[in-house]
Structures are given as C-alpha cells and as structure tokens.
Recover the amino acids of this structure.
C-alpha cells in the first residue's frame, strides 16, 4: 500500500478498497434471526504473557497524537528516505512528482523534524519515539520542486549520504560540502535532545524505510534495486554507529514493506542473487538471511546491533471489502486459515505469518524483538476497521510483538486503539498481562482477555461481534479463579459512529459468568470487577443519549463561490458536531490512485471573544469518497513554524455562520511534471450534523433532506494597521503594502488582481513545467514577466522558487501577517 505525500500538506495515506454501503451487505445466514449465543471462556490460571505497551503505537505523519492515547510514535514513511537532516529538505519520490521541498518542515534549523517529534511526544505524554535514519545513498539537496529524470543522482539536486564521519562532529553541519553524515546526525540529536534514556531523547532508530521500494518510489535517487549485500552492509555500519554513540538506543531494521520482501527481498521477476544466497545457506526466506547477517556482525562487534526486526504489514484480503476484512487478521496467527488473496492461494507455507517470523528470529538471532512499524487493515469509515484493529492488537499481544505503529488516522481504526488504551475517556485500559481466552467460532467473534500483573481484581475482555446485521448474546465465563466477580461495564463501538459508548452496566454477575448483549457489527471492551460498586454512578449511552439533527445539502453548484470553493451554512455553531463530505474524485490522466487534499476553512471566535482563522484538513481519494470532519468545541490557533511552531487549543466556534471547503493540493500516480493530471472533486452532498444533550431544545429543524438553493456570497473583513491595509476573505486576499513598488502586487502571480491559492499553484506549476506554464503566454495559466515580479514575494534575489509559493500559502493561512516577507 502506497503512502501519498504532497507539497503543503502532511503525509496522508490512501485508504483500502472502497467498501460497499451497509445496505448492500448480506446478513450472515449461519446466524439465527435475533442473534445467537456465543460462549467465551477466560482461563485465569492459564499461561500469562506480558503485553508490551508499545504495540499501541501510531505513525507521526498520519495520526494526530491528541486523537489517540498511546505510548509510542514512529517518524517514518517514504518522505524520510530522502530527508536531509541538515536543511530539512525532503523528496516525495513517485508519491508526488519527485518533488524536493519543505513538506516535512519549513524550518532551517538542523534536525527540526526530530525536534518537533520530541516536542509533540512530550506534549501528549508519549514516552517512546522512533525516528528514521537515511541509508539509500542520497538526500534532497534543495527545496526547489520536481527532480527530473535528467537530474537523478548523482547531480546537484542531491547530497551524498555518508554513514560514518567517525569524529570531529560539527556543532552546526556544513551546508557547502555536498555530503550528509549520518553518525553526525545521531550525535546532533543526542546533543540537542539527550540520549535514549532522557525524556526528550530518541529511544529507537530505524534503518531507513522500505528499502525494496527505493528503486520504485525513489527511482531518481536509487534507480537500481537494492541488493542483499548493500542492505546488509549499510544496516551493519549504521547500527554500529548508533550503538557507539547511544548504546542504550534500540536499532530497528530493515522495515520491509510486505510479504514478498519478507520472502525474497526484491519484488521483481528475477531473484538471481536471492536464489544463490538461499541455496548456499539453506535459508527458508529472506528474513533468515537478514537476521543471520546482523547476528554474525553483532558477534564480531561484541554488541547487539539489531534490537527489533521490523516489518510492515498491509493485509491483502482486507482490501477486498468488509467481509474479508473481518477475517483478515487470522492470517497472522491462525494455522490453516486461508485468506481470500494471492497469499491464501500461493503462500500458505508461511501462514500464520507472525509465528513463522518468530521461528526465524529464534533460529538465527534469538532475543531479537519483533516490530511492525507500519500496518493497516482498512475500513477507516465503518466498524469493520475497528473490529480488525482490535483483533490485530490482541493478536500482537498474544504473539509477543514488541512494537507496532498504525499507519493512518481514520476514525474507526484509531478508535480501536483507544478502546484498548482509554475506553472510558479517563485512562481506563486493557490489562498489562494477557490470559487465555477463546470463543467458539473466531469467524463470528474474536476475544482477548487481560489482567494487571499480580492483580486479578479486574479482568478486561475484548470481544467482537462480526455479524453485520444481528446482535450477539455473549456469556463470558471466568474460569479457574478463587475471585468472586460481581459487576461489569461494557464499552463498545458499533453502528455508524466511532465514538466509544458505555452501553451496559451489569450489577448481577453470578457464578463468575457475565451476560452481555453485543450490538451487531461491534467491538467491545468488557471490564469485570470483583467489587459490586465498581461502576456505581456511571450512566450508559442510552441514559445520556443526545439528539442529533442533520441537514443535508445537495445543490452544491449554488453553494460554490467564484473561487470554486463550497460555502456551507452553519445554523448553530455552538452545537455543531461534524460534517460529512461526499464527493467523486476523478483523474484526468487515468491514474490508479489519486488524492485530493482539502480543508474546512473557518473564521472562528473563542469563548473569550478572540477572532482568528483556522482550518481542519481532510482528504478524498479517487472514486466515490467520504470524509468526516469533527467539531468538539476546540479549534487550533497556530503561530510560529518548525520547532518553534505553537498550536494553541482554544474553546471556540465558527464565527460567521459558514465554513468553506477548499481544495489545497492533489497527488496522483501520474501527476508529474511531464504529465498533466487534474484531480477534480465533484461534491455530491454535504451533511451538517448538530448534537444536543438531553433536555436541550434543538434550534435547527430536524430535516435530514434539506436542499439549499440560496445564493452564496462571501463577506469581507477589513483590518487596518500602521504598516498596511488588508482586505480579505477566507478564499481570496487583496494586499496593499506601503513599501510595495507601484508596478508590483506581491503574491498575484496570475495577475488577476487578487492573491489566493491559485497563485501558489501557478508558481508550483511553472517551476515543475516551465514549457507549459512559464513565460510563454499572456493568460492566467502562465507566469508572465509581470507575474514573475509579483510572485517573487520571498525576495531573496534568486528569482521565483517554491519558497514564494510557501509564503503565499502561509499568508493565506494567516501564519504570517503580510506580503512580501523581506
């Protein structure tokens, strides 16, 4: 599964296959009408396994740490392979036009990305931080946009990576030598943040990212496939450097992208090198080889060089739809299970996958931990994503996985982590010690149970109901214990809402059997206590259920202003809960994947009366796509940038009774400088959902089929300061600055009289494809000579660059007060 990165936006992940609407899903005919009885057995005297708290991790660039309770975060992905720590430049590779730019950071402070990681982790109480080291050979030398085929490495567009400088580490890296030293990077991190034992330091270092895909994703930096020899030698050298500088830091490798890489490293048709190495050493698959290389090098070095064998796992069968997704995790742990994919057809010799990997570890490098630093089972917009996620986490606990970090931020999947780590919103979590638990039929219901070490007073039982239509009557039998359990609480995710709900409090537990009714298509955490009053005072969802009112707008054309932005009226900002955006995303070039990066733009007012501008991002993927943007009464106010960036969370609402849907960027399979690919969004409907607590009278009429035909206008606000006069709207800005020459209107690259997002886009297009968008025409699709003068807002004397587009974007986001930025 590819990760899609784009200029002026955070890295995002394309979702798995679009699933069918719930109404199209057949009921499980094996289940009787009204559900069935499922017996769940929990053995409190059975084998106990310590659960690593690091399995509940996430990836920094896909999941907002404030949305999930976790103790581990990874900084990785395709962008990190060509990340230049000295300047913070990075390259997107084939994910987005092979662009070298400021995507990861706009700061010039060395190692800004890892500093931001440290600060973000500290702010959200995340203790374990894993970052990525660059091994592929080159990193971005500049931030000037697309790297052409003719500029592939070695060229001036790239700086050479040298793993070992050895000594004389500079306090400030030399930006003129054309070389980036990786041991100097680790040393810089330690000097800046402390070593791995410090709270702010980095605990783990990953030996790059998905090396088998270097020649695919980063073909202009590493055009040839990685070899077994190259990957082994680079991994060993870099691991030695890490251990020399920070002996307690953990080394992760080799971050392989998926099953075929586990098996034979390279995914091409010819595997000559692998077949020779395999035959000479009697290896079962490539993971044996890598472990053997690292073990022998460790023995020679006198220290462990690989702490965590790191792989990525994106389920093949989960992409086929909901019913396959609900069974997909079984490929990782269940002997004999045959999933509906090419793995189930051709690769059963290595199923179940995790025990096969563990067998390789035990044979070739005992004591090495197992990590899964990227994984995703899809289903981010329905409960199948939650069910697969909670089964995966239970599987990781049972199989002894040390570290796991979700790639993605889709709400139903993230909610699956929170069901383990924060089921009650107050830090309630799954126990730290796994105990045996089983259901009668894992195809219908999966379960995992835990207690806290040396404390059986509370038992947490994760259980799923995979039936798409019917509720499940579950009896949880707590066996082999002297404890008398007396009460239980049931927290669940089900239906079309990813929120965790307390759906039942059981106060009559008898004979250590808990009777639970699980909603159809649900995942639940059942918390059982030996105290009768453990859950007194709690109110269930039914007792606190709120009333929702939905307004649906389908006449999108009448809601679209002259900038092409959709203006959505907000009738009651105080009770605004979420908006659901539905659209069809198309690719003019016929790309296999495409992503439209969008934002809900908001003029906000805080509870203290402060007016500010903010936004909430969302993305829509190729085809019919849906995105949900939530409003919880808290809006972000951003100031500063890079490591100095401050995000202040304010209690606030929409200020002027409307929001705007704006498309900021796009990325696609064929969207390079040589190919024009217009990623267009045809909005079908926008649903605005308001939520009212019990006793509140809704001020919005409960009409779920409203169609608006009201003409849309955009109001303006005028703010005057001693330095400038600015007239602006969310969508467009007219700038007049007292120091501006009479013939220059900074920012207005297309010379249409206004400064808006189209100017930043035109600058990027002209840089990426000067023959098409450069000084060749006089209309608004080309940069003219006058437009070039207007566009040079960064004004560094080197002409129009990507920094000019960034400055315009920052101005529109109100991150800087004015243009130009001298």
């Amino acid at each position: 599964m590819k990760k899609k990165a784009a200029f002026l936006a955070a890295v995002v992940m394309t979702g798995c296959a679009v699933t069918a609407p719930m109404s199209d899903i057949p009921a499980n005919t094996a289940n009787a009408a009204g559900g069935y009885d499922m017996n769940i057995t929990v053995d409190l005297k059975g084998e106990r396994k310590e659960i690593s708290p690091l399995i509940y991790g996430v990836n920094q660039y896909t999941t907002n740490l404030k949305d999930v309770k976790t103790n581990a975060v990874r900084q990785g992905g395709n962008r990190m392979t060509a990340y230049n720590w000295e300047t913070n430049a990075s390259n997107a590779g084939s994910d987005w036009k092979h662009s070298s730019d400021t995507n990861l950071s706009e700061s010039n402070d060395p190692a800004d990305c890892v500093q931001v990681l440290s600060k973000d982790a500290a702010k959200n109480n995340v203790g374990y931080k894993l970052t990525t080291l660059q091994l592929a050979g080159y990193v971005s030398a500049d931030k000037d946009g697309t790297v052409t085929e003719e500029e592939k490495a070695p060229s001036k567009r790239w700086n050479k990576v040298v793993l070992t400088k050895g000594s004389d580490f500079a306090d400030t890296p030399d930006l003129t030598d054309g070389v980036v030293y990786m041991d100097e990077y680790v040393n810089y991190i330690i000097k800046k943040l402390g070593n791995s034992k410090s709270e702010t330091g980095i605990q783990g270092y990953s030996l790059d990212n998905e090396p088998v895909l270097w020649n695919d994703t980063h073909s202009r930096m590493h055009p040839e496939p990685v070899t077994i020899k190259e990957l082994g030698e680079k991994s060993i050298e870099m691991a030695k450097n890490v251990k020399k500088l920070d002996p307690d830091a953990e080394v992760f490798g080799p971050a392989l992208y998926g099953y075929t890489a586990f098996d034979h490293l390279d995914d091409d048709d010819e595997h000559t090198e692998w077949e020779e190495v395999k035959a000479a050493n009697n290896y079962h698959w490539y993971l044996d080889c890598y472990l053997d290389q690292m073990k022998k090098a460790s023995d020679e070095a006198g220290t462990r060089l690989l702490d965590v064998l790191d792989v990525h796992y994106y389920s093949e069968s989960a992409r086929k739809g909901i019913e396959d997704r609900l069974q997909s995790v079984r490929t990782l742990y269940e002997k004999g299970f045959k999933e509906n994919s090419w793995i189930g057809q051709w690769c059963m010799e290595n199923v179940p996958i995790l025990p096969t990997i563990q067998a390789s570890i035990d044979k070739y490098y005992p004591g090495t931990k197992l990590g899964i630093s990227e994984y995703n089972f899809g289903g981010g917009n329905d409960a199948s994503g939650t069910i697969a996620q909670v089964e995966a986490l239970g599987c990781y606990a049972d199989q002894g996985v040390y570290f796991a970090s979700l790639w993605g931020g889709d709400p139903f999947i993230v909610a699956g982590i929170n069901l383990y780590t924060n089921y009650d919103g107050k830090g309630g979590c799954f126990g730290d010690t796994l105990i045996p638990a089983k259901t009668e039929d894992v195809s219908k219901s999966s379960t995992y149970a835990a207690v806290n070490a040396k404390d059986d007073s509370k038992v947490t039982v994760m259980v799923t109901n995979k039936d798409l239509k019917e509720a499940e009557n579950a009896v949880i039998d707590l066996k082999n214990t002297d404890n008398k359990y007396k009460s239980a609480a049931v927290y669940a995710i089900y239906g079309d809402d990813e929120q965790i709900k307390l759906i039942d409090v059981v106060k009559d537990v008898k004979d250590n059997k808990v009777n639970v009714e699980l909603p159809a298509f649900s995942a639940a955490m059942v918390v059982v206590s030996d105290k009768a009053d453990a859950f007194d005072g709690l109110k269930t969802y039914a007792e606190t259920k709120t009333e929702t009112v939905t307004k649906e707008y389908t006449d999108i054309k009448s809601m679209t202003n002259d900038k092409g932005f959709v203006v959505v009226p907000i009738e009651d900002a105080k009770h605004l809960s979420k908006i659901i955006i539905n659209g069809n995303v198309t690719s003019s070039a016929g790309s296999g994947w495409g992503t439209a990066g969008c934002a809900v733009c908001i003029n906000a007012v805080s509870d203290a009366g402060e007016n500010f501008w903010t936004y909430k991002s969302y993305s829509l993927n190729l085809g019919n796509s849906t995105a949900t943007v939530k409003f919880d009464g808290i809006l972000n106010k951003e100031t500063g940038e890079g490591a100095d960036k401050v995000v202040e969370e304010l209690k606030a609402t929409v200020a002027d009774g409307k929001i705007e849907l704006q498309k900021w960027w796009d990325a696609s399979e064929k969207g390079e400088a040589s190919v024009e690919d217009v990623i267009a969004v045809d909005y079908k409907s926008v649903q605005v959902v308001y939520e009212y607590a019990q006793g509140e009278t809704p001020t919005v009429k409960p009409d779920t089929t409203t169609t608006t035909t009201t003409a849309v206008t955009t109001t303006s606000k005028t703010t005057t300061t001693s330095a400038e006069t600015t007239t602006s709207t969310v969508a467009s800005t007219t700038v007049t600055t007292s120091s501006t020459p009479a013939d220059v209107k900074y920012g207005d690259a297309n010379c249409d009289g206004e400064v808006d997002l189209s100017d930043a886009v035109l600058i990027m297009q002209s840089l990426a494809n000067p023959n098409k968008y450069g000084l060749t025409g006089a209309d608004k699709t080309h940069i003219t000579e006058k437009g070039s003068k207007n566009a040079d807002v960064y004004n560094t004397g080197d002409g129009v660059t990507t920094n000019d587009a960034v400055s315009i974007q920052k101005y529109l986001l109100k991150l800087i007060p004015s243009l130009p930025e001298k």
Notes: Confidence is low (pLDDT under 50) at residues 1-35, 704-740, 776-780. The radius of gyration is 27 Å. Residues 227 and 273 are 8 Å apart (CA to CA).
